[in-house]
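Pasting two entries for a bug report.
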Amino acid sequence: MTEHLRNTSEEVLWSAFQQGDEAAYALIYERFVGGLYSYGRQFTKDVALVQDCIQDLFVTIWNNRRNLGQAKSIKFYLNSSLKRELIRRLKASRTSLEEVEDDYIFGITLDIEAIRIQEETNSEQLHRLNEALQKLPPRQKEALYLRFYENLSYDEIASLMEITSSVAYNFVYRGLSVLKKSFQATLKLLFLFFPIG
């Protein structure tokens, strides 16, 4: 892999990719595939579907690279494209309208084993935080995920979720307020797992 690409801006990396630089393409894949997989798994537990959509996404962008516009944020562009494709495929596979809540289901789960917080006490608190997160509406969970896991701005969240920036802000604010009210003692953990940036 071309080492000089590793320290370039996203705009330079994207431009090199658009010009057919395979090293730039590989670096984009390497840099973003893990986050895409995590993001995709929030919409569905169907691992194969998420992997297929990611693979199709990378094939599509390679084949259409010369026709793609300049991406200010590669992560945002890829997340947005993946979300559209996942929702399209999930809707196509639904057999009834009752299966679709708020156009799609957005789950969010904290991986207790990966986090490994000081044994029993903290693991119980994490379990309670997970339960509180599951009670939030899907759109609030998605906004929280995008804001604190993906570090997207409110404008980027709004664009990705097809809402206004003020609605994105309200989703995050209301989600945090509900968590704070229902789980005051563990709010400290929330900021450990969702670093504010």
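Entry 2 (this is the one that rendered wrong in the viewer):
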Amino acid sequence: MEITVYGPVRSATGAKTVSLEFDGGTVADAVAAFVAAYPRAEPHLYDGDELRSSVRVTVDGERAPMEDRVPADASLTLMPAVQGGSR
């Protein structure tokens, strides 16, 4: 699976797009596998045990709820909210 990340999550991966071994499952499973591989991303994506409501996840370019199925060869995009600068 290829995962493209934006915002502060990119500092956890060191690259905009990373490859991850994933056997398929739900969106929640894919995000959990990503966080297991890149633990520094967790505070940017989760608030406790829940995915932050501001995080947007797409699968093959389409927004996907956490319970949707994801094939092993899908492309996932993770977009955490990006906060603006000061005035």
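Dev reply: Rendering is fixed now. As a check, the viewer should reflect this: The chain has a mean pLDDT of 91.
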